[in-house]
Specification:
The protein has 2 helices and 6 strands; from the N terminus they run H-E-E-E-H-E-E-E. By secondary structure, the protein is an alpha+beta fold.
């Protein structure tokens, strides 16, 4: 038996609000739209992960989601252009990531990051 994937489900009455943040800013595509549920996918391949933590690191609040991107500066520029407030960062962390926090349209704290050795 092996876990194939883990899916995050975020409750909302208006799933269309996901489009500008997860679609336009993060570049994710709609893989499934049943009207009552809409699933966005990225283009990368990664191993299944689930994390458990007591804080977000560097004394920050624990984010609801962590999204790794290949170009943090580009995403940061899109966030700023969309007038979305950055809650933390951008910061180079001692464990080798560069990241910032924002709230998504549903109020979830999102950690957007890249590994510094990857770029």
């Amino acid at each position: 038996m092996a876990v194939q994937r883990i899916v995050t489900n975020i409750a909302t009455e208006d799933i269309q609000r996901a489009s500008s943040f997860y679609g336009d800013i993060l570049g994710m595509e709609v893989a499934m739209d049943q009207g009552w549920i809409q699933t966005y996918v990225g283009s990368g391949q990664a191993r299944v992960q689930i994390s458990f933590a007591s804080e977000g690191g560097s004394g920050t609040e624990l984010p609801d989601l962590s999204i790794e991107v290949d170009n943090l500066d580009e995403v940061y520029e899109k966030i700023c252009a969309a007038d979305i407030s950055v809650v933390y960062g951008p910061a180079d962390e001692p464990w080798g990531v560069r990241r910032f926090y924002v709230k998504d349209p549903f109020g979830r704290l999102v950690n957007i990051l890249t590994h510094m050795d990857a770029g």
